[in-house]
Amino acid sequence: MVKILKATLEDALTLLQIQKEAFLVYSEKYGDFDSNPYHMDLHRMEFNIKYRFGQYYKIIDEENNQIVGGIFCFELDEQPIMKIAQFYFKKEYQHLGYGTFVLKELFAKNPDVHKWYVDTIMQEEYNVQFYKHMGFIEIDSEEEHEGLTFVTLMKNN
Asked: 88 near 18, Cβ under 8 Å?
């Protein structure tokens, strides 16, 4: 099983390495695009971990006490509305149900948040269906370039 704990600056490099590994596939598949978390540097990761309007959690495998992923969300202009900005796992932890558990934990830690947003790649049907399964609905889409469209999803609590 996994658990989520607040990330610390000491976790930044490990989280960055896992994030780069998780998002490399999108860089290779869709070409270079600015919003790909693969391009994040250590300074930005540290900023996100410290961001006072955000929450950065490390995802821990309880069996070996290793970081296996991360999730970062932040408040939008109106409280209580949050946006999930990055959500990722090591490859061997993907598609095993951990994502559902982590999102449920995130929602439980934020009972006052009444609206959640997330952007994902429309062409990545598994990701889109995952968020829909979690209660999100599509509200917008925007083409980044030919073959790459982002979809914005929203969930009301």
From this structure: yes
DSSP string, 1-56: -EEEEE--GGGHHHHHHHHHHHHHHHHHHH---TT-GGG--HHHHHHHHH-TTEEE
Name which CATH class applies to 2-156. Answer: alpha beta
CA distance 112 to 80: 6
Distance of CA 154 to the CA centre of its chain: 14
**Tokens standing for 47?**
């900023």
Distance from CA of residue 56 to its chain's centroid? 10
pTM strictly above 0.90: yes
pLDDT digits (tens, 9 = 90+) for 60-103: 999 999 999 999 999 998 779 999 999 999 999 999 999 999 99
The SS3 of residue 114 is coil
Residues pairing with 155 in the sheet: 116
- Other beta carbons within 10 angstroms of residue 125's beta carbon come to 9
Counting Cα atoms < 13 Å in the Cβ hemisphere of 22 gives 22
